[in-house]
Amino acid sequence: MRAGTGAAGGTRATTRFPHLKQDFAASLVVFLVALPLCVGVAVASGVPAELGLVTGIVGGIVTGLMPGSSLQVSGPAAGLTVLVLGAVGQFGLPALGVIVLATGLLQLGMGALNLGRWFRAISLSVVEGMLAGIGLVIIAGQLYAAAGTTAPESGIGKILGMPEALADALGSAATLTSLAVGAGTVAVVVLWQRMPGKARAVPGALAAVLLATAVSAVFSLPVATVEVQGLLGVIQPPGTGAFAELANPAFIGTILAFALIASAESLFSAAAVDRLHDGPQTRYDKELIAQGAGNTVCGVLGALPMTAVIVRSSANVRAGARTKASRVLHGVWLLVFAALLPSALALIPIPALAGILVHAGWKLIPFRRVAALWRGNRGEALILVVTAVSIVAVNMFEGVLIGLVLSVVKTAWDASHVKLDVVDKGSGPIQAHLSGNATFLRLPKILDTLEALPQDRPIELDLSGLHHLDHACRSALENWAERHTTAGVDPVRLLAA
Prior knowledge:
- The protein is an alpha/beta fold.
- The protein contains 22 helices and 6 strands.
- The strands form 2 sheets. Strands 3-4-5-6 form a 4-stranded mixed sheet, with helices on one face.
- Strand 4, helix 21 and strand 5 (459-469) form a beta-alpha-beta unit.
- Helix 3 runs antiparallel to helix 15 (325-340).
- The radius of gyration is 29 Å and the shape is elongated.
């Protein structure tokens, strides 16, 4: 009876949570990826490291439980580091909670008004360019972390500073040891895919971190490890004095910037994550509400703002996650281990975690896609590359905006096909026929052809074949007709569309 009951209980659990094994394993990988990001973003933002962990916990448990994007993982994001650093410097740390709280409330409102769904209209090349740019920045930044050195703030600074960092590393045994741990972690992750099937049941990233931890401990390697002190002491809900800043126009502007950038990054990330798996796609308005709920809680706790983070999300997908349980569990692991077992976290080498991120960043760069686009559609390939380079050179938000603008311009250019046929029978008026879509994008070519027509002959410009004629193009054609006619010659006739 006991055996039967146990089997039945196991069957019920399996039926209720059919993907628990995959989600459990993925949550551990995401936890290992999220931990250094939470701490690193907090330190870079000028706030206590534990506040980054608080945001990661809220992103996993609160936002993770809500509908929207089932596999996307939220937490403190590097894309908001500069904003947070500036806001804390200008208004003080107590005011950060008010900013994040107001950001969350604005996101809730935007989601309720169904504004999130507009982010579905994102070019594939822009999304893949975003992934590539983020991957490059991740790789560049984590190479410094693997070496145990401080990375420059900007993406382009990270890349340009690599030769000097490498030269410095060659003269330091401790730095070379740290790099070796990171490189060994990457090697284990890559080679783990060739292990027997039973061994691959353990995620390669998890195995690599465990091996790196064991080796570092056994040989007492001089590498940096994770430092966590506790959470309760840093949680400080905003006081009434902080809310007084709401009367400051600059403070309101900061809140709007947080809300717009956090929302854009989260929904751009959702579009990117949807490309990585074939499961349920993001419900954008609900995802925006989920982000708003998470930021509202973070604001009440005085923590960092959150967005969906492509690094954790892609790690979640690639680790085999199937449902939202993986992201919720990753928040639970952050809470349990950071609160109760900080000494266990202190054993994990930071270079090993950096190696995991370097591998994840490499996987985000679509090398084959770029090559295929270059052969078949160089315009789309250019958008992808420019988006990636812009993210590295500027930041994620502005880089994506540049990509979107290029995508819109290319679409408008492709849509504005126009044909100009000139018929000259030797006697009588010269006939010019325009057909297609005449827009300002094609105007220079149209005017070059028309202005080359002789001025001592009558001309008829037939616009009846046009499907679309924008205002700029119509005005330019009318001005040309007035200028082109000379004395003693019949004026140019425009046959209206």
